[in-house]
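Progress report, Aim 2. The chain analyzed during this reporting quarter is listed below.
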Amino acid sequence: MLKGLLVLLIFQCLGEAISQLSDIPISGPIIGMLLLFLALQIYPHQHLTSIETCSTNLITHLPLLFLPAGVGIFFLDPEYLNQWPAIFVSMILGTILAIVITAMTMKLITENRHDK
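Predicted structure tokens for the chain:
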């Protein structure tokens, strides 16, 4: 598991470095994830087992990583308190939009796999 965590952190750091040095408007973890994806496409079985073990354990504890962000909502400045309707609507619409786009993407991917 430690080897998998090290690989994930290396790719995140690479992504952060590329993001900071190139001034592109994409976050470092996203760039790191794309680099990891490309590395796994080129070398599919090199570190797959260790990354899979580490990822599974991280996903198991994923709700703990979102807890600080959720608690932070309760400590907003008073100027944001009258913005609750807009915050609520954007959260609901954002969630619905994410679910719809994910479903459409999965449908396209599965249809393309069945066509081959």
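The longest helix spans residues 84-115. The mean pLDDT is 84. These observations will guide the mutagenesis work planned for the next reporting period.
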